[in-house]
Design goal:
The protein is of the alpha+beta class. The protein folds into 2 domains: 8-91, Elongation Factor Tu (Ef-tu), domain 3; 110-200, Elongation Factor Tu (Ef-tu), domain 3. It is 17% helix and 38% strand. The strands form 2 sheets. The chain has a 6-stranded antiparallel beta barrel with strand order 1-2-5-4-3-6. It has a 6-stranded antiparallel barrel with strand order 7-8-11-10-9-12. The protein starts with 7 loop residues before the first strand and ends with a helix.
């Protein structure tokens, strides 16, 4: 489990194709968003969120080593990464850690593509296009995880959504590398997915059913 607060970036320095997937070797960034610039207590097999995808640390020989199954390469944007690209990194939560973002599982729901990037004063505005099913799980001012970053939905459109980025997020994560057309990993808020699942299954919550929600949407 993660929070979507990126701790540092890692630069992809090598790719190795393997049967059933691919091995990624990352070099830790010299500067960290928070915490240690160099992780010194990593354990073999521990979970690390790599640009929104929960992966197990397979080794530390020449960098942080991750083995990625072909299914993950196909269903996330990790399959499109090339040497030199930055990937966002966050270690899993420990009991007692602060929850500064939102609950992130590292299980990517879908990929989207950058539709627009715009500087707004000292901040940045990012619009991401995605499928209708993914959009249906979002709410205005709710949480969304983009490439492992916990962000707030600022606008919802028929085929896309918009988030705003403060300077530290823009500068200290991989998001400043994105261009129009760039693919991104998306994970919808797990709490919203659980509520929707229960309602779709016919289990009312506080007397409200899924049909009530659908009627409200139609009225809007």
């Amino acid at each position: 489990m993660f929070t979507g607060l990126v701790e540092k970036t890692g630069k992809l320095i090598r790719l190795e194709d393997r049967e059933g997937g691919r091995r990624l070797i990352l070099e830790e960034a010299a500067q960290a968003v928070s915490g240690e610039a160099k992780w010194t207590d990593l354990e073999h097999g521990e979970s690390i969120c790599v640009s929104g995808t929960c992966l197990s640390l397979a080794g530390q020989e020449g960098g942080l080593v991750f083995d990625v199954l072909q299914e993950s390469l196909d269903k996330t944007c990790l399959g499109s990464k090339q040497p030199g690209d930055l990937l966002n990194l966050e270690r899993s939560l420990k009991f007692g850690d602060r929850m500064g973002g939102h609950v992130v599982t590292g299980h990517v729901d879908a990929t989207g593509s950058v539709a627009a990037v715009e500087a707004v004063g000292g901040d940045w505005k990012l619009r991401v296009a995605c499928d209708a099913e993914t959009l249906a799980g979002m709410v205005y001012k709710g949480s969304i995880c983009i490439d492992g970053i916990s962000l707030t939905v600022a606008e919802l459109h028929d085929d896309s959504f918009t988030v705003h980025l403060i300077p530290i997020t823009w500068e200290m994560t991989s998001i400043h590398q994105l261009k129009v057309g760039s693919p991104v990993n998306l994970e919808v808020d797990i709490l919203a997915k659980l509520v929707r699942r229960r309602l779709e299954a016919g289990a009312p919550i506080g007397g409200i059913t899924w049909d009530d929600f659908r009627s409200f949407e139609q009225e809007q």
